């Protein structure tokens, strides 16, 4: 199998994905470029649009976001823009006094198979809650304000928990199963 490459501008996303590949004795290349941010309704649309900019194959992109129930799924596909503008403090302000803290992270991986063929999509979801304050230092993105269901610590407080149950881990597992079956 030639080396699969992850197209992303985000080092945190690459490092997490690389660790999942290494656990499966696979190398993961990094195509570090900024992807055009399409304003679309779903992560799947964003992923397909991003991949359409690349001629090569054996590559994948991944789009992720946090969907907050009491905000009707906001910021969802706009997670990057919202993080870069109002950030975690802004999200917590929007949720001030809100009792329903439930939320989920979603990740969609889009893989362009080697030698051509349709784009394959793999989705991972983790349910949890938005904490009342950021915990665990600066962390990656929304990690300091997200506590996964069944745990008491935010993703930023416990990276080990994140590596076991995250949306990215679940999408990566599906991608890795596909790669093992097909390559
Ligand atoms: P690429 O599109 O170049 O891959 P990006 O930073 O734009 O990188 P996404 O669109 O997938 O990545 O993610 C949107 C934002 O959501 C991202 O910038 C983070 O702030 C946040 N995010 C994504 N995955 C996350 C995770 O696992 N934990 C915390 N925040 C995350």
Treating each run of at least 4 consecutive H or I residues as one helix, how many helices? Answer: 6
Order of strands, widest sheet:
2-1-3-4-5-6
Instruction: Supply the CATH class.
Output: Alpha Beta
Helix content: 25-40%
CATH architecture: Alpha-Beta Complex
Mean pLDDT: 94
CATH topology: Maf protein
Looking at this protein, list some descriptive labels:
single chain, 183 residues, alpha/beta, Maf protein, six-stranded mixed β-sheet, globular, binds inosine 5'-triphosphate
Task: Produce a short descriptive summary.
With 183 residues, this protein is of the alpha/beta class. The chain has helices spanning 11-23, 43-51, 79-85, 87-94, 159-165, 167-182, and strands at residues 4-7, 28-31, 59-68, 102-112, 120-130, 146-148.
Can you offer a commentary on this structure?
The chain has helices at 11-23, 43-51, 79-85, 87-94, 159-165, 167-182; strands at 4-7, 28-31, 59-68, 102-112, 120-130, 146-148. By secondary structure, the chain is α/β, with parallel strands linked by helices. The chain has one domain: Maf protein (Alpha-Beta Complex), CATH 3.90.950.10. It has a six-stranded mixed beta sheet. A hairpin with a 7-residue loop joins strand 4 (102-112) and strand 5. The relative contact order is 0.16. The mean pLDDT is 94. Inosine 5'-triphosphate binds at residues 8-10, 13, 35, 63-65, 79-80, 83, 140-143, 166, 168.
């Amino acid at each position: 199998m030639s080396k699969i490459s992850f197209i992303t501008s985000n080092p945190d996303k690459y490092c997490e994905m690389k660790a999942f590949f290494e656990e499966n004795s696979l190398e993961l290349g990094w195509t570090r470029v900024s992807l055009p941010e399409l304003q679309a309704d779903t992560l799947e649309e964003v992923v397909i649009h991003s991949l359409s900019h690349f001629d090569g194959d054996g590559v994948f992109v991944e789009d992720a976001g946090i969907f907050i129930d009491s905000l009707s799924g906001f910021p969802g596909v706009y997670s990057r823009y919202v993080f870069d503008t109002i950030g975690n403090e802004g999200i917590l302000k929007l949720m001030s006094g809100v009792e329903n803290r439930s939320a989920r992270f979603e990740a969609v991986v889009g893989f362009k198979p080697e030698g051509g063929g349709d784009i394959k999509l793999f989705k991972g979801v983790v349910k949890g809650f938005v904490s009342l304050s950021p915990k665990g230092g600066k962390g990656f993105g929304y990690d300091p304000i997200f506590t996964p269901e069944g745990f008491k610590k935010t993703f930023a407080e416990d990276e080990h928990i994140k590596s076991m149950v995250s949306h990215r881990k679940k999408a990566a597992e599906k991608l890795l199963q596909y790669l093992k079956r097909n390559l």
